[in-house]
Write a structure and sequence with these properties.
Layout (H helix, E strand, L loop, with lengths): L1 H41 L3 H13 L14 H11 L9
Helix pairs in contact: 1-2
């Protein structure tokens, strides 16, 4: 009797969670699309907007601002490594 009762309760919890997640996914998808559009409008490239949108959704008070450094990633890494090597030589 107790097993049947607990199985019924667990089934009810799982069904309720599934229903809630279905409705929240629909709302989240619409919110993500809006957030992505706003990030693109702010000047972020598409691939950055795709990655930043879920972060913005989780932290709505955070403000993301693009910064164009006019440098490519490889040059920035080379300059950083030459100026400040934070990894001790013993690790090489």
């Amino acid at each position: 009797m107790k097993k049947r009762f607990f199985a019924g309760i667990i089934s009810l919890i799982i069904i309720t969670a599934a229903i809630i997640s279905i409705f929240s996914v629909s709302a989240d998808a619409a919110d993500l699309a809006t957030i992505k559009a706003n990030l693109k409008k702010a000047g972020f490239p598409d691939d950055y907007a795709e990655i930043l949108a879920p972060v913005q959704q989780q932290h709505p008070n955070w403000i993301f601002e693009p910064l164009d450094t006019q440098k490519n990633f490889d040059d920035a890494v080379k300059a950083y490594v030459q100026s400040q090597n934070i990894i001790p030589k013993s690790f090489f």
